[in-house]
Amino acid sequence: AQNGATVCIIEKEAEAGGNTLVSGCSFQAVLDCLVWDPKDPDATTGVYEYTGETYNKAKSDKGRLDTLRTILNWSEEPFNEKVEDPAAIKSVDDYDLPNRGVHPEYLETLRTLKQQIRAYLDWAEPKLKAGAKETDLTLFSTVELHIFQTYYGGLRLNNDKTKWIYSDYDLVHQLCTEILPTKEWLMDQGSLFQNESSTGTLIGCLWQRINRFIGGKVNGEQIDGKWGAYFAVPLNTVLSANNKNTIMYRTKATELITDGNGRVTGVKAVKYDGTEVEITATKGVILATGGYAYNREMVIETNDYWDKDDLSPDILSTNRPLAMGEGIIMAQKVGAATKGMEFTQLMPLGWVDTGHLAGGTGENVIYISPAGTPNAGKRYVDESAERDVLCQGAFDFGGEKGLFVEISNAGNRTKENNVEGRLYICTLEEAAELLKIDAETIKNTIVEYDNAVRNDTLEELAVPKSAATALIGNYNEDGSFKEDGLLAVRYLRPSTHHTMGGLVVDTSRRVLDKDGKPIEGLYAAGEVTAGFFAGNRLGGNAVAEIIVSGRIAGESVTKNN
């Protein structure tokens, strides 16, 4: 729209936004002014050039140095796909990825990243020897780390351990380098973000680079929340760019129209009242129809990652009922290629009763097995690991359908925040009665964990943890456990969340056919596509991808036609 094109948006629902409306809406991006700068390593503040504002540098969470040292020792040999004993691989940890090497496309990124890490450790280690704690250190974060973690965080084997999948380097590189300029493009239009704290985390993100929204300004009025930042602002841009631009709400696209040469020239659709419409596209059609995580039949039919007993027909979903995969099916009918459809991301933080997204992060909580399981009351997984690792742990150590219990410090929450069947703010004794687990077992789990957090010994836990930010329990001045301190207890279970596979696209977001050639006039962006995240997506990368890809697709339509 900003390039002068006339735009018609066909929207299935009564409002724009799709599943993004029920997502956390945070995204991953590195803001250099907040992190360690090799040119000024002892700096405590940085200037965000886009705004000219000065912000305090962020501090590292506990455990981040171990991750950097793992990457520093990562093998640079060509990736070894051989699996000696498939039965021995029970989880992603058994892949032993650092010793398997790296795919050639990612080798230079790894080498650059290692140079960056060496420089950081050369600065950090003398400070640690002098008595500094890891949490005193300025956070290390680079675009190369984002690229490499997106790569290894999605590098996965299929269910029978015979086939690997990994992310397309060109797409990942483009995503991680373009997300900050795209954020600023949204800010140019009026979107507002919490720039000063863009080093947060959310579930399965692997690092401190989560950017969160405030809202947006439209015609001088501030609209708070995700609607303001991601919808009100860009919709205003579209509708004010050209008085012919329009949105057809409650209209379902049913078929792509092609000419005699196979070029996509429009869309057939049906309005809410049954009226059939045809829209002609002189420049092209962009599919932004999302994935199919609500379509459990399609998820199960395409699955080659999860065990059948875990991915059952009655599994719940974080998605709205609109996520059925129609865009993929329409594109396939005009010759579009797909890949990665065997992999669906499950969300560990689904409410036990509805499957809807409960939200949260893994660095300030513990997960324990419920009553009636051999591991009841004890931790079983690194809560700051990837989402598929967390879900597999829930299936292996949780209750029926992967039910597990999350415990955190209640903080400012009180019993008034209780939600029957989901969330309880309670003392240790009350938690023990609620969970039907011996109080001493729960207490021992909490105290053991908290001691590791205090003493920087996360790797020595019975179940090691890669990053932590908070204690779980409450303590008296003498260090003893405060029995009447409040805990937050949540009942959660894995739900279908994000379908990893979809349409094959290039860096212009042109949809490709099975021969790798662009289908003229057809573009795609968002979860309807494939190639970015392979077998598992890092938390916060979805919103990054939809806004980067949406912008690229829009520019490509006008440039190429």
Explain how this protein is built.
By secondary structure, this protein is an alpha+beta fold. The chain is built from 12 helices and 24 strands. The model has no long low-confidence stretch (mean pLDDT 97). Strand 12 and strand 13 (264-271) form a beta hairpin. Among the domains are: 18-220, no CATH class; 344-496, Succinate dehydrogenase/fumarate reductase flavoprotein, catalytic domain (Flavocytochrome C3, Chain A, domain 1, Alpha-Beta Complex), CATH 3.90.700.10. It is globular, with a radius of gyration of 24 Å.
Measured distance between first and last alpha carbons: 14 Å
Total strands: the figure is: 24
Report the sheet-strand fraction: 15-25%
Number of helices: 12
Gist of the model:
The protein is of the alpha+beta class and 561 residues long.
Features:
561 residues; alpha+beta; Flavocytochrome C3, Chain A, domain 1; 3-stranded antiparallel β-sheet
Task: Give the topology, please.
Layout: E1 8-10, E2 27-28, E3 45-48, E4 53-56, H1 64-72, H2 97-100, H3 107-129, H4 143-154, E5 156-157, E6 164-165, H5 169-189, E7 191-193, E8 210-211, E9 213-218, E10 221-224, H6 225-241, E11 246-248, E12 251-258, E13 264-271, E14 276-280, E15 285-287, H7 296-302, H8 326-332, E16 338-339, E17 344-351, E18 366-368, H9 387-397, E19 404-409, E20 423-426, H10 428-435, H11 439-454, E21 487-499, E22 502-503, E23 510-512, E24 518-524, H12 541-560
Parallel strand pairs: 1-11, 15-24
Antiparallel strand pairs: 2-8, 3-4, 5-6, 7-9, 9-10, 12-13, 13-14, 16-22, 17-21, 18-19, 19-21, 20-21, 23-24
Helix pairs in contact: 1-3, 3-4, 4-5, 5-12
